[in-house]
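Lab notebook, bench 4. Still working through the backlog of constructs that have no structural model yet. Next entry is a single chain of 382 residues. Request: give me the C-alpha cells for it.
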Amino acid sequence: MNFAVGFKPMLGDGQSMDTLEKQLICPICLEMFTKPVVILPCQHNLCRKCANDIFQASNPLWQSRSSSTVSSGGRFRCPSCRHEVVLDRHGVYGLQRNLLVENIIDIYKQESSRPLHTKAEPQLMCEEHEEEHINIYCLSCEVPTCSLCKVFGAHKDCEVAPLPAVYKRQKSELSDGIAMLVAGNDRIQAIVTQMEEICHAIEDNSRRQKQHLSQRFDGLCGVLEERKAELLQAVGREQDGKVQRVRELIRQYGDHLETSSKLVESAIQSMEEPQMAVYLQQSKELIKKIMDMSKISLSSRPEPGYESMDHFSINVDHVAEMLRTIDFQTDPVGEDEAEGPLGLDGGEVASEEQRLDGSDGPEGPEDAGPRQKPASSRHGQH
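Model written out:
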C-alpha cells in the first residue's frame, strides 16, 4: 500500500513543536514528562513516579519514604544510557528537580492549547485515492490503508481494524517490550556482576592454594634439610673419632721413635769411650735398655681400609621417584585430615623416614646409614 504525507493548514511552526515534544517524552512511560521531573547524575530526565517505579523494582527491600525505619539507600540504572545511579536514604526524593524542563512543559502545554498555534499533524494520504486519509489498518497485510481501499481497492477481502485501536495496542506492546528489555538488562547486569565476583573468588582461591602449596613444599624442604644436617653430623662424628685415633697412634709412635733415637745416640757416645773400664761400666746398662726397647711391640695401627667412609653412602633414588609422583588429591580433604605434606599420609611419611634412617629392612652396604660401622673399625686399639 503506497501513501503520501499531507499537512493540515497551520499558523505556527509545527515541526519545531514536534521536535520539542520528542525531547519532553519520558523514556519509561513514553508520555510527556509528568511533574515533578527529576534530573539524574548522567543529565537524563525522568518523571519522579517512573524513577521511583524503576528504583523500587531494582531495590525490592528498600523501605518506603513513609516508613520509620532508616534505609541505607539503593541504586538503579538510567534507562537511556545504563549509567548506574546511586541514591541515598531519601531514594528518588533526594534527586534534584529539573525546574527548567518543568517550565518548558508548562510553556509547551500553553502553546499547544492555543487555537492559533495548534501544531500541524502530518496526515497520511492514500496514493490510490488521493483525497482519502489513511484511517484504517489492514490486519491481513499489516499495512495502514484508507476506507476506499477496503471497499473497492486491494484490501476489500482483508480483515481491517480502526487505526487508533491498532495504534494504541501496538504502542502498549512496544511499551511492554521496553519494560521487559529494561528488566532483562538489569538481570543480565546482575549475572555479569555475579560472574565478576566468581572471577575474583577464583583468583583469591588460586592465590590461597598457591600459598598453601608453597608452604607444603617448604615444609618438605625443611625436613630434607634437617635430615641432611643429621647425616652430616654423623659423618663428622665418625671422621673426628677416626682422626683422633690415628693421631693418638702417631703420638705413640713418635714418642717411641724419640726414645729410640736418644738411646742410639747414647750408645754411639759410649762406644767412643777410650777407657775400657769406663765403657764396661756403661755398656751393660745400655745393652739392657736396647734389648728392652727392641722387645716393645708397636703392632697397633689402622687396619687396611680404615680410612674408607663408603659406608655412609645413601640411596635416595626411590625418594626422588616418590617426590616426582606428588600430585593433587582427587577428593579434597580438610587441613586436619591431611596427615602428611602434599597428600602423603602418615604411613608413607614414616616409611620414607625409615628408608632415610636405613632401618627399613635388609639392604646393601652402600645403603647403610651412618650409625652402621664396620666391625673392623676398632681393631687394633689398646
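Notes after review: Strands lie at 3-7, 37-39, 45-47, 74-77, 84-87, 122-126, 136-138, 143-145, 160-162. The helical segments are 14-23, 48-58, 99-113, 147-151, 163-271, 276-295, 317-324, 346-357. Flag for follow-up if needed.
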